[in-house]
Specification:
The complex is a heterodimer of chains A (244) and B (380). Chain A is mainly α. Chain A has a two-stranded antiparallel ribbon. In chain A, α7 runs antiparallel to α8. Chain B has one helix and 33 strands. In chain B, the strands form eight sheets. In chain B, strands 5, 6, 7, 8 and 9 form a five-stranded antiparallel β-sheet that branches. Chain B has a four-stranded antiparallel β-sheet with strand order 1-2-3-4, with no helix packed on it. In chain B, strands 10-11-12-13 form a four-stranded antiparallel β-sheet, with no helix packed on it. Classes of the chains: A mainly alpha (244), B mainly beta (380).
């Protein structure tokens, strides 16, 4: 199943590479934009949910004060409000779960198109969609970008390649901060604490991945995160104009 | 709510962690990333078999020596490439994996004493992996690397004489004829280089990558590419004489005998072509037990009497085809994948496998029956 997704993405990557001046990074960037368009309904629902959570914040803070000594009652009341408002409090992580097959597929697609080992390339040789125009003979794609090898993890010899995992961390943190349900400094509930931890943990995990895997995957993460941040501000602006 | 919230995040973290493990291939064992290298000189078989290089007795499959002697000495890395052998030395290459996030894998060319497997010298100046074996000149060893360069080393000392940088990975074994090194690159060029200084004599560009060693016959080079074509090229000038279009990439090397060129593409189509014109003489699609086409990485090997063409496949089948018409004479199935070209003796064919309990098997050329297997069953 995952391999099917990877072969599909790899062939799309070949097609884009052929039509976009045979630039691997440009092909990965355009594929990232396309994938984000595919995920747009999910992202929009996540952002709507985050905004509603923001609006509910005063109500939730009142509840916390009211039931400061009764955690169980507090949890019940919070759930009631979420239900009434049609909010899923775990809505922040569900879109990430849905993206897992996409990350896997894209990672494998990059490995197939910019292979580091011959076995990866051999596996892909049987799965090129020859009916696509211009894909014949394209593999392996040009693997260098700013002196970095897109098929390899960051390494000391190309020390500047470590900038990519740092950028992945930074953009993931910004994205996470904007899209996670907000909590005030006074909010000491377990959920709020968990949320604050996740704002650091998830970007750290992504940075850890990108230290180990092909740098081409970092390009996907960075561009995806930037798109989400831009989307967030565009949606806010549209909503603000609608309210005005 | 808190419990629900906590569970959702925990599920996400678990899923992401599982994804990371699956991407890294964290299976707890030695993981092949390339194929076993195999070569034969007289009654000796040289095998690059993951953590060791072995010299096996070709008649019995018994180990004569191993390098390193203890397979747990993993600091020598994993050996893959086809061992290159001369009168005194065996030259192989290995990769020592990175030990941590900020450490670098080491890629090493080793020269071993042919008699006892002692290491004579090592060269660790390349940044990428070695995928295919090198070629020996009179006093020079030439090998391509995944960092995109071709390295020429002093055969006595291992010192670097010159390197030549191409535009992509070099996964092909070079061919040395006289003063010229012919080597294909993934940058879609076949280069002719001067062996003394690595200067370009000519280069030939196609629309597909080159990953195999060319064959030279009567002044013409023959080589397959990833644009599904086989090329005949003038060895002096680099001018194309003819090309033949197959159905998929040509990755393995080619074999020539008496004006006939034999080749197999990765879709398992075996071809016999007229050496002078490229016109097909016969074409045979190799099929597995379920009548599906088999995937073939390695080039074909001719038996010593030129009557059969031997081809290994990813499905674990070794085929013997009649060179007269391409019809199947026999096939031998076993676990694993045969991605290395078989090597032949007078009455025996030797094949190397990956993902298999037996890494090397000796079979009878006439009927494909197994003679011995390495490692023997009780040593697995």
């Amino acid at each position: 199943m995952f391999n099917f997704i990877a072969y599909f993405f790899a062939n799309i990557l070949l097609l884009l590479y052929n039509f976009l001046g045979q630039q691997t990074v440009v092909a990965i960037a355009v594929l990232t934009v396309l994938l984000n368009l595919l995920l747009l309904p999910l992202t929009l629902s996540q952002q709507r949910s985050a905004r509603k959570m923001q609006e509910l914040q005063p109500k939730l803070e009142k509840l916390q004060k009211k039931y400061a000594n009764d955690k169980e009652k507090l949890a019940q009341e919070q759930m009631r409000i979420y239900r009434e408002e049609g909010i899923n409090p775990a809505g922040g992580c569900l879109p990430l779960l849905v993206q897992l097959p996409i990350w896997f597929g894209l990672y494998r697609a990059i490995v197939f198109c910019v292979p580091r080992t011959p076995l990866d390339l051999f596996q892909f040789s049987q799965h090129i969609y020859k009916f696509l125009p211009g894909v014949e003979g394209l593999v392996p794609l040009q693997s260098t970008f700013l002196g970095m090898d897109l098929g390899r993890p960051p390494n000391i010899t190309q020390w500047w390649s470590y900038a990519l995992p740092v950028l992945v961390f930074a953009t993931s943190w910004i994205q996470q901060k904007l899209l996670s349900p907000p909590s005030s400094g006074e909010d000491q509930s377990q959920a709020a604490a968990m949320n604050r931890q996740m704002q650091i943990m998830m970007p750290l995990m992504f940075m850890f991945f990108t230290l180990q895997y092909a740098t081409g995957l970092s390009i996907y993460f960075i561009i995806s995160n930037i798109i989400r941040v831009v989307q967030y501000y565009v949606i806010r602006r549209v909503q603000a104009q609608g309210e005005a | 709510m808190n419990r629900f919230f906590k569970r959702s995040w925990s599920l996400l973290i678990l899923a992401v962690a599982l994804l990371a493990l699956s991407l890294s291939g964290c299976t707890g064992g030695v993981r092949a990333t390339s194929w076993t290298g195999l070569n034969r000189e007289g009654d000796q078989l040289y095998v690059a078999d993951l953590t060791q290089v072995h010299l096996l007795d070709a008649a019995s499959g018994d180990i004569v020596w191993s390098f390193p002697t203890d397979p747990r000495e993993s600091n020598r890395g994993y050996f893959y490439v086809t061992p290159t052998v001369n009168e005194t030395a065996v030259v192989v290459a290995s990769q020592v994996p990175a030990r941590g996030l900020f450490s670098q894998p080491q890629n090493i060319v080793w020269a071993l004493d042919r008699e006892d497997g002692r290491d004579l010298w090592r060269f660790d100046g390349a940044e990428g992996e070695y995928v295919e074996g090198g070629a020996l000149g009179e006093d020079t060893f030439v090998i391509g690397n995944s960092d995109g360069s071709v390295y020429a080393l002093d055969l006595e000392t291992g010192d670097l004489r010159w390197s030549f940088e191409t535009g992509h990975r070099v996964w092909a074994t070079p061919l040395i004829v006289g003063d010229t090194v012919y080597v294909g690159s993934m940058d879609r060029h076949l280069y002719a280089l001067n062996i003394s200084d690595g200067e370009i004599v000519w280069d030939f560009e196609t629309k597909g990558a080159f990953a195999s060693q060319p064959v030279l016959e009567d002044g013409t080079l023959y080589i397959g590419a990833f644009d599904d074509k086989l090329y005949a090229i003038d060895a002096e000038t680099g001018e194309e004489r003819w090309h033949f279009a197959g159905e998929n990439w040509f990755w393995g090397g080619l074999t020539v005998h008496q004006d006939v060129l034999y080749a197999v593409d990765v879709d398992g189509n075996a071809y016999a072509l007229d050496l002078n014109t490229g016109d097909p003489i016969w074409h045979q699609a190799l099929l597995g037990p379920d009548d599906q086409a088999v995937a073939v990485r390695a080039g074909p090997t001719l038996t010593e009497d030129y009557s059969k063409l031997l081809v290994g496949s990813e499905d674990g089948l070794l085929f013997a085809l009649d060179t007269a018409d391409g019809s199947e004479v026999w096939n031998s199935a076993a676990d694993g994948q045969v991605l290395t070209p078989p090597v032949v003796g007078e009455e025996t064919v030797y094949e190397a496998r990956i993902y298999a309990p037996f890494r090397v098997r000796a079979l009878r050329v006439d009927n494909g029956n197994q003679i011995w297997a390495y490692p023997p069953p009780d040593e697995e």
